[in-house]
Amino acid sequence: MNTAILWFRRDLRLADNPALHLALREAERLIPVFIWSPEEEGEWAPGGASRWWLHHSLADLAGELAKRGCPLVIRRGDSLAELRRLARETGAGGVFWNRLYEPAAIARDTRIKEALREDGLEAQSANSALLIEPWQIRTGGGDPYRVFTPYWKAAQALLPAGRLEPVPAALVPAAEPPQSLPLEALELLPRIAWAAAFPGRWQPGAGGARQRLERFAEDVVLDYSARRDQPAQDATSGLSPHLHFGDIGPRQVLMRMQRALAEDRGSGRIATTDHFLREIGWREFAHHLLFHFPRTPTEPLYDKFAAFPWRKPKDYAADLAAWQRGRTGVPIVDAGMRELWTTGIMHNRVRMIVASFLTKNLLIPWQEGAKWFWDTLVDADLANNTLGWQWTAGCGADAAPYFRVFNPVLQSQKFDPQGEYLRRWLPELAALPTDRLHMPGAQRPAIVDLAETRQRALDAYARIKGA
């Protein structure tokens, strides 16, 4: 084979990219292509924050490819039609890509692989997004796991070893450059300025991912287990959007952490690194669940929760809008929602608090929260988003006790004791004494009474307890 097409999707890097090396083993010339086809994502086309990230990550990838003499081809339209067209235009003998695991992507990719092979083209896919494929692990009874701890115990025996695939120093492009759209033609950037603060927080692309990983491995990980739940602290890796878009791969993260351990075993890194790698494990577990239970982005994992007595949309519309805009009158909830709107991210501890408030105190279906996060998070990932919301709502994997209701005041006092996070995102409350700062109604009346709505939620869960 003289020429191969490398189809980029959410693997926007050259380092440790299995599909890239598959293509280079089969062909001399390479045609890297990105096809913008959001319609093929079903009801989970990328949201606004994700599109912002995608634009900049593609720009970074295009620059890296250009340095190696192989420009990125950008197309818009039906993926199969564009791949066929590109193969005809260039005489390519095969198409190579890295796998995705969302239900719509699996169906689309299966159809494309079959069609390309019927055309006489080679079509191969590889794994760049996960440490372990979702189908590699089963319980002793042959079923998918639904509980994290036994899943992760089994998964650790299968973690990959060996070296990472290097970044090619140079690439040989097609003899005649195919037509390509400019990146701006995809219109990924928001038309309003709500994402204006994103560049101050994020550097999408492989370069930004490497910097974050190095900083984390050399410094932040030392205090990770002690500080990771404190939203005012910069104490997490910040790698989640990079992992979602494939700016960096989980093998790169795993092996950098293993190297950190080998370099300094006497510093306490073992415990903190293990704690961080469990979070990578949760990401793997989320994809395991989505693969085996593809209906869960919209339906509860456990059927009995389909009868849960959620409020009706006409009754909760005003409360949902207040939650989305950070106007509930509960300081930690409002601070988290404003952080999300301003930066495209929310600290994980605060995500649990605001999700509990929405589903338990407001009795608003978790699907409403999942949709809002999908549009506003730069790390919006269908597997992670689904797992997180179902866990908090009590209807998904590992959600025991399923009736848990986070007390936002106690959570705020425990994890932001000096009110640094609250003052950062609620400057109108900055002058209040700390003991009042955490309390509902500190600046505006709370939209619900926490005690009353907690009891209402417990009563609602009691109704389905025996179902």
Automatic annotation (TrEMBL):
Cofactor comment:
Binds 1 FAD per subunit.
Q: Name one GO biological process term.
A: response to stress
Q: What are the required cofactors?
A: (6R)-5,10-methylene-5,6,7,8-tetrahydrofolate; FAD
Site feature Electron transfer via tryptophanyl radical: at which residues? W310, W366, W389
| Pfam family, any one | FAD_binding_7
Q: Which InterPro entries match?
A: Crypto/Photolyase_FAD-like_sf, Crypto/Photolyase_N_sf, Cryptochr/Photolyase_FAD-bd, Cryptochrome/DNA_photolyase_1, DNA_photolyase_1_CS_C, DNA_photolyase_N, Rossmann-like_a/b/a_fold
The residues that cross the membrane are: none
- Keyword DNA damage attached: no
Please give the Gene Ontology molecular function terms for this protein: deoxyribodipyrimidine photo-lyase activity; DNA binding; FAD binding
Q: Which PANTHER family match?
A: CRYPTOCHROME, CRYPTOCHROME CIRCADIAN CLOCK 5 ISOFORM X1
Report what the protein is called: Deoxyribodipyrimidine photolyase
